[in-house]
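A reminder from the course coordinator: this example appears on the midterm review sheet, so study it carefully.

Given structure:
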């Protein structure tokens, strides 16, 4: 029998999340972000659930090739553009849209020999200060692109730094609107948080990422259920051992947990080598047979311990849901686990280890 840990990828939940996000922006087209191997879910695994998207977005040319090989014929948008001149040859061959965020990328386009002009998204640095042209240089960059025969359509984009928080988007919106005023071309501004929280940012294209996979983009304020999102990834394992502790007994590496009374604990086949966060301390939520309980002590490479007090019927073989949906239908949001571990749902999804078997639940 294989080790009893399994990640389940629910394509029906994914397609339902896509539909829920589309309803939030009914007049915009939706570009589903599948970077980082679809946020750890597996690009090839999720494509069926994303057939309703108008485009896909990612960063890595190898991932773009995988998407095409898997049968996607719609637009693919390279969110960081090309990293060297020869990448443009692959953009031409695969029909990729790509972001232009610095002069070097424009220079590369000017030297590129192609029979098919490219669609590009010119990126404005509206205040996040990562990639993009400064506002005072944006129009000159647009003019350079407009003059190139290698360029067909120029669209406009920016990225928000605080769409999920109190600072909001108004300051960046005003910078963007001034920079692109009177310029032709479609606009794209909204990530997951902006799509859900700021309807005035929807424009022509929205580009949700984390929300597609069932994690709330503003988890500190609203949970995924608030936004009508379903977990796409569920990580499940089993109790593989049971111990009876007495007052004063210590548990695990470092003996950091000390029982203050009689306590029945379960040892679970899941650890940091599976992608569970090592820094998740005592009290991180977990489900045993669909009943909420807590982890105890230090997470080790292959195992962790849980408190069986709320579920006295649990024993060896009992189901443990580390995040996502239990077989009984109870949901433990990945954001709650991440918050208890001092991180984000993004990190937990992307950290799923390759040694964990994956089962895809089809949409139909």
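Designed residues:
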């Amino acid at each position: 029998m294989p080790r009893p840990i399994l990640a389940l990828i629910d394509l029906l939940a994914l397609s339902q999340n896509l539909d829920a996000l589309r309803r939030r922006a009914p007049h915009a087209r939706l570009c589903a972000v599948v970077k980082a191997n679809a946020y750890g879910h597996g690009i090839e695994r999720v494509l069926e659930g994303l057939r309703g998207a108008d485009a896909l977005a990612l960063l890595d040319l190898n991932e773009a090739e995988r998407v095409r090989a898997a049968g996607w014929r719609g637009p693919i948008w390279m969110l960081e553009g090309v990293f060297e001149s020869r990448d443009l040859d692959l953009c031409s061959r695969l029909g990729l849209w790509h972001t232009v965020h610095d002069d070097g990328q424009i220079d590369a386009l000017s030297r590129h020999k192609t029979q098919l002009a490219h669609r590009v998204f010119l990126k404005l640095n509206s205040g996040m200060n990562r990639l993009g042209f400064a506002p005072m240089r944006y129009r000159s960059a647009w003019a350079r692109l407009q003059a190139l025969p290698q360029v067909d359509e120029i669209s406009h984009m920016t990225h928000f730094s605080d769409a999920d928080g109190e600072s909001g988007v108004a300051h960046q919106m005003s910078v963007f609107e001034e920079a692109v005023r009177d310029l032709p071309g479609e606009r794209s501004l909204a990530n997951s948080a902006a799509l859900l929280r700021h309807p005035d940012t929807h424009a022509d294209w929205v580009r949700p990422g984390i929300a597609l996979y069932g994690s709330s983009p503003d988890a500190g304020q609203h949970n995924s259920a608030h936004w009508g999102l379903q977990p796409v990834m569920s990580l499940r394992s089993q109790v593989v051992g049971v111990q009876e502790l007495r007052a004063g007994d210590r548990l695990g590496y470092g003996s950091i947990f000390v029982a203050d009374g009689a306590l029945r604990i379960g040892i679970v086949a899941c650890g940091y080598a599976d992608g569970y966060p090592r820094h998740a301390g005592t009290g991180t939520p977990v489900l045993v047979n669909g009943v909420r309980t807590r982890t105890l002590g230090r997470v080790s490479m292959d195992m962790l311990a849980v408190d069986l007090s709320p579920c006295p019927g649990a024993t060896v073989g009992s189901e443990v849901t580390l995040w996502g949906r239990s077989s009984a239908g109870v949901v433990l949001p990945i954001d709650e686990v991440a918050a208890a571990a001092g991180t984000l749902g993004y990190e937990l999804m992307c950290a799923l280890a390759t040694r964990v078997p994956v089962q895809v639940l089809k949409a139909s």
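The two ends are 29 Å apart (CA to CA). The chain has two domains: 11-215, 233-361.
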